[in-house]
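Hello,

Our lab assistant flagged a job as stuck in the queue for most of the afternoon. It eventually completed. Since we weren't sure the result was trustworthy after the delay, we are filing this so someone can double-check. Below is the sequence as submitted and the structure that was eventually returned. Let us know if re-running is recommended.
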Amino acid sequence: MIHRIHELVWGPWLLLLFLGIGIAYTIKTGFFQVRKLPYWWMQTIGSIREEEDEKKGVTKFQTACTALAATIGTGNIVGVATALTAGGPGAIFWMWVSAAIGMMTGYAETMLGIRYRYRDHKGAWVCGPMVYLERGLKKPYLGMIYSFLCIMVSLGMGSMVQSNSIAETMEYSFGIPSVSIGIVLTAMVLLVILGGISRIAFVSERLIPISAGIYMLFSMVVIMSCFDKIPYIFQCIFNDAFQPISIFSGTAGYGISRSLQYGISRGVFSNEAGLGSMAVLHGAAEDTTPEQQGMWAMFEVFFDTILICTMTAFVILCMTEGDAAGSGYDGAALTAYSFSKRLGPLGQYVVSGAMLVFAFATIIAWYYLGRQAAGYLAESLKKRNKLYILQRILRGKIYTMLYLGAVFLGCLAKLETVWEFSDIWNGLMALPNIIALIVLMKEVKVPK
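-- returned structure --
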């Protein structure tokens, strides 16, 4: 039943919605992500040194690292491998397409989040789709629904699925029992989240650039070692994405639909453009403007999917001669096999280390996401004098305890069903956000 619901939620209609809203914003802004590439690049990654000189509170770069921590995860290793085995090399082309137009979706939702954010009674920023659903769209109940779905995703995809990936990787690579991993991981997460958004941002700022840099370095070593294969890999990608014979019939038509479906869905799974999560994570930035944070969101989609996912894909395709499905491996095993084929045992440790760091960073970032949603939902229920017991659960330490419990249980559980169930919440969470992006489209502006 869960599998059928998953297929219904993540059917072609939802993928078309993701594509449609991205295309609409791309056209509305005159292809801003391409036309103004040098400009938004200098306004984001090119301005890091200036931020360090004028550091006050949580910086724009720290919020970008926190957002990258939430998006760079299993999708960059497992998701890419699955897309290649299930959808063929052409899936990578459609992943690029989803990222290119998703950059403007990420820009729009982050800009709206910063525009409508406000400070709560403790002086902390409250930001995200729930805020612009309430204050921009004037639909507070949609904001409450989004918050509830965000909480469910944080307890599933944000914590249990990620901790399960860590436990399986560590047990497979180093033989460490899952219970021991669960205890240590839960303690490490607790130490970080006790410091709030400042500590989460601090840890993310150090984890993500270093770990992503090491992963990209070893990826480039593998790719450059088979430099002569790169033209053939590009040929495989484009031939598979645009099969010239019987494009709308027979096996070619089926191949097109499969590569498009897996490319777009795995692209969304990796960079989260359209889900609204980036708008929540960027809310803590001080001394910024909606346009500046929107451009940081664009950079994150670019870095996550067009850079890291592409490197993973090229490593796999180079090592499997363009036939990932014929390797006999899938998921993280396929990525580890591809690295190991060129780097030996070191390749497996590279993938294991990347999985460990990326998943840990995702866990701490999603705690903040879920905590923000829980605080908003509790405050909304309090205003309406409803569900007092639920208010108590959402406030204070109870949500933190639930989250840490989910992290620990994720290390012990078999999560095939939990993964699909979490993915359902993920897809449903996008719906109110996309509604807001459609209705509030006139309010989204880009720098001239």
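-- support follow-up --
The delay was a queue issue, not a problem with the job. The result is valid. The first strand starts at residue 118 and ends at 119. The CA atoms of residues 80 and 313 lie 6 Å apart.
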